Amino acid sequence: MANISYPTQGTCSYQIDVETNDAGEIVNVTFYGGCHGNLQGISALVKGMKITDAIAKLEGIRCGYKPTSCPDQLARALKALL
């Protein structure tokens, strides 16, 4: 099992905590700051997903004019875990 507290950059959320298991699956994701309802939804959707699958789905998503987003920051946190 691995855990990471990832300080985000360029988003309304300021930190993401990620917990994974030894099978390479996401157990729990907690966002701090940001759009609470949307981030709860993202957290629920990736729970149980393989880390590599979540990265493939979330990486590169942009928020409006910003070059990143909360989902993209989650992908970056997951990459840091690997």
Helix content: 25-40%
Structural class designation: alpha+beta
> What is the number of helices?
3
Q: Can you summarize the main beta sheet?
A: 3 strands, antiparallel
β-strand number:
3
Beta strand %: 25-35%
Distance between the termini: 12 Å
Rg, please? 11 Å
Low-pLDDT residue spans: none
- The H/E string reads EEEHHH
Categorize the overall geometry. globular
Q: How would you state the average pLDDT, rounded?
A: 97
> Strand order, biggest sheet?
1-2-3
Task: Explain what this protein looks like in three dimensions.
It contains 3 helices and 3 strands. It is of the alpha+beta class and 82 residues long. Strands 1-2-3 form a 3-stranded antiparallel β-sheet. A hairpin with a 5-residue loop joins strand 2 (13-20) and strand 3 (26-33). The termini are close together.
Spell out the key features of this protein:
82 residues, alpha+beta, 3-stranded antiparallel β-sheet, 3 helices, 3 strands, 38% helix, globular
Topology:
Elements: E1 2-7, E2 13-20, E3 26-33, H1 36-46, H2 51-58, H3 70-81
Helix pairs in contact: 2-3
Can you describe this structure in just a few lines?
Helix content is 38%, strand content 27%. It has 82 residues and is an alpha+beta fold.
